[in-house]
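Severity: low
Component: inverse-folding endpoint
Summary: output formatting inconsistent between runs
Steps to reproduce: submit the following structure tokens with default settings.
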């Protein structure tokens, strides 16, 4: 079923930051199957108390997959550690063909809540680290037959909704994207420079930390990014300056079964940050070419009051609620975090989150996201919202009233 059958990266040397776990390791293992050389440039040499994997366990997995591994302790905040690892890579493997800037730091905090040390960490790792690692590798990349730099960063979407909740994080990720914009043009004809970003949330240790238990059902596996990265890194160096979305590219490459990438096939998926919904469900060519992002429609953010409300609802789900309600509710929200959300109190165990419900909804409610949050936190009574025209209801009114009763029980938790 896979369109990737040739060992296109055999003998190539990949320098991957943050490759001891998660997305970086998945890209490394994909290349290792071709017989590539992988430089694991990451800072985890000793086992972390909560996160799995070190540069040495990753090296063992890469060797087992058929590649050659060079584990290097690299904190991308330290320029000398980058320089030392690049020199060691060139001495060991004879050069560098591909750089993957994957190391990243995240803090989804507002301006007043972002501590200076967190700000420094995100700017140092995401922007400065990407810039310095690229700068250090470029003289060696220019000697390669088909050199690539790939940054794990988003298309630059200037919709203010992506700035207002976590301004510092957004600036730092867009800094990585600006490196793509500038370096692709600066080294056009010599080195390909592209960005890759997932359409949906990806299940990693970081996502578990941000989203809590149960979040993995709304995510895809790291494999989808590994496959998309492989597609990019095996293209000629003339393919440059693109902001690529994983699913859009893989559809172009002929992949049809995306359930294979889901943690829980069939479960609604959470869209990733920085992507407005309409833009990335359209023409695949537009996506791969990285055209300007339409700022008109807002996909649901993975953070924000609506997402937080649904997380609490999901956490409060019980068989009792499902047994006594037996209804599926769909919410069409406008404004920030707009889009389709659902609460399923009919299927076994129940579910709540972004996207259409797994089965046809009994009740469809339309309202603004701001009024939705007020309604679910007890600041706006559903009856009053309905009578004043703020809430429109289609479908089974008896079930709508049942949901109102459940809301009164949930208010203490929200």
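Observed output (run 2 of 3):
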């Amino acid at each position: 079923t896979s369109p990737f059958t040739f060992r296109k990266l055999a003998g190539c040397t990949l320098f991957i930051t943050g490759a001891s776990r998660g997305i970086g390791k998945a890209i490394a293992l994909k290349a290792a199957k071709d017989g590539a050389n992988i430089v694991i440039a990451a800072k985890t040499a000793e086992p972390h108390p909560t996160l799995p994997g070190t540069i040495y366990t990753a090296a063992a997995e890469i060797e087992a997959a058929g590649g050659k591994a060079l584990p290097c302790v690299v904190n991308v905040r330290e320029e000398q550690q980058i320089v030392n690892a690049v020199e060691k890579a060139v001495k060991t493997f004879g050069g560098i063909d591909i750089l993957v800037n994957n190391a990243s730091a995240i803090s989804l905090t507002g301006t007043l809540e972002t501590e200076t040390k967190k700000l420094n960490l995100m700017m140092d790792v995401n922007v400065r680290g990407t810039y310095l690692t690229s700068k250090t590798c470029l003289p060696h990349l220019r000697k390669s037959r088909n050199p690539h730099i790939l940054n794990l960063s988003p298309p630059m979407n200037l919709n203010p909704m992506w700035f207002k909740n976590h301004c510092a994080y957004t600036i730092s990720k867009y800094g990585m994207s600006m490196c793509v914009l500038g370096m692709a043009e600066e080294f056009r004809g010599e080195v390909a420079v592209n960005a890759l970003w997932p359409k949906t949330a990806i299940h990693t240790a970081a996502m578990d930390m941000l989203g809590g238990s149960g979040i993995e059902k709304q995510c895809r596996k790291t494999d989808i990014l590994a496959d998309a990265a492989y597609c990019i890194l095996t293209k000629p160096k003339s393919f440059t300056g693109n902001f690529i979305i994983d699913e859009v590219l893989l559809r172009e490459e002929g992949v049809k079964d995306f359930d294979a990438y889901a943690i829980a096939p069939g479960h609604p998926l959470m869209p990733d940050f920085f992507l407005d919904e309409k833009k990335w469900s359209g023409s695949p060519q537009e996506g791969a070419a990285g055209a300007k992002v339409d700022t008109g429609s807002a996909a649901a953010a993975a953070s924000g009051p609506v997402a937080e409300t649904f997380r609490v609802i999901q956490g409060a789900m019980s068989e009792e609620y499902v047994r006594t309600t037996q209804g599926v509710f769909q919410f069409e929200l406008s404004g920030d975090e707009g889009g389709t959300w659902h609460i399923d109190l009919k299927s076994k165990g129940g579910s709540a989150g972004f996207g259409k419900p797994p089965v046809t909804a009994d009740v469809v409610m339309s309202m603004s996201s701001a009024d939705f949050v007020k309604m679910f936190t007890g600041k706006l009574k559903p009856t009053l919202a309905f009578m004043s025209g703020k809430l429109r209801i289609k479908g089974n009114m008896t079930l709508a009233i049942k949901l109102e009763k459940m809301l009164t029980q949930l208010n203490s938790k929200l």
